[in-house]
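SAMPLE LOG
Freezer: B-3
Tube label: C17
Construct: single chain, 369 aa
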Amino acid sequence: MVTDFPAELAALRTTFAQIEAVSDPDALKKRIAELSEQAAAPDLWDNQENAQAVTSKLSQAQNELERLNSMRQRIDDLEVLVEMGIEGEDAETLAEAEVELAKVKTDLQAMEVRTLMTGEWDDRGAVVTIRSGAGGDDATDFAEMLLRMYLRWAERHGYPTKVMDTSYAEGAGIKSATFEVDAPYAYGTLSVEAGTHRLARISPFGSADKRQTSFAAVEVIPIMEEAQEVEVPESDIRVDVFRSSGPGGQSVNTTDSAVRITHIPTGIVVSMQDEKSQIQNRAAAMRVLQTRLLLLKKEEEAAQKKELAGDIKASWGDQMRSYFLYGQQLVKDLRTGYESGNPQLVFDGEIDGFIDAGIRWRRSAAAGE
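STRUCTURE (predicted):
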């Protein structure tokens, strides 16, 4: 089938125009100018937290504008390449244009998905916690498989990650793990992964070759340096300190530097053991606790509004995705219907298709479509 280049280029320009309208390059330029002025202030680094926030926002805005300018140039260059190929009846040039067209469409689709992330904290980094559920050794093994999947996904995109806490199971895998993805829009992107994941396979831990179903829960919260809206009285928390541990309960630290904070009124528990000192781990745990409490407060307010409006149905089911590693070999998202027939690639971090479908689904659900 011969590619209809004029139609394809027209579609690219239409999509890009829609992205530009949402991204607003003029507003970005104004924001960059304001932030650049703040960054040039001689006393900027007197307050390191504010300085880091300003420079981070400036870098993010500059990168966003550069992405827009780069995509506009790529579409222009592609149009020139197509014209050269058609006018010169050059099959090799047209083949080159075909390859570039596919790349531009893929990258443009990713940019389009980014414009759908307009939530209050969507542009922030993310803190992801994975917890094993029912299923014994298979569940703890599954939790570790999911941890590797997300870390590989982040690695594919060049996003910096940091594992903040890991609780190893006595047998295989992990009971839980918490890690951070410090990249713009990591929260808006990964928040659609929150929910219960289900694995069905022939258990490698049993001798009866029976199918085993196991579960793991994924929680995603935004990175928030300060959660000033939520005050946590000391009387509401219990702080326990312990030594960091590795697989099989092996101690990896000779001092009691790991910290576990329990919020007594809600039962929320946060553990941190990645930092070198007890003080650093406590501060990191408190930030995560405050963020969870802030989100809990927002969820309760939203639930109350829904109840007053007469709509109390949940947006997300208990199970949001199933992984079948026997027979049909399939990974299927139960909300969007998106699926992959190659679970190995999915567990190797190729989950962009699931994430994109989830973001579009969430936007449609919010719009009541």
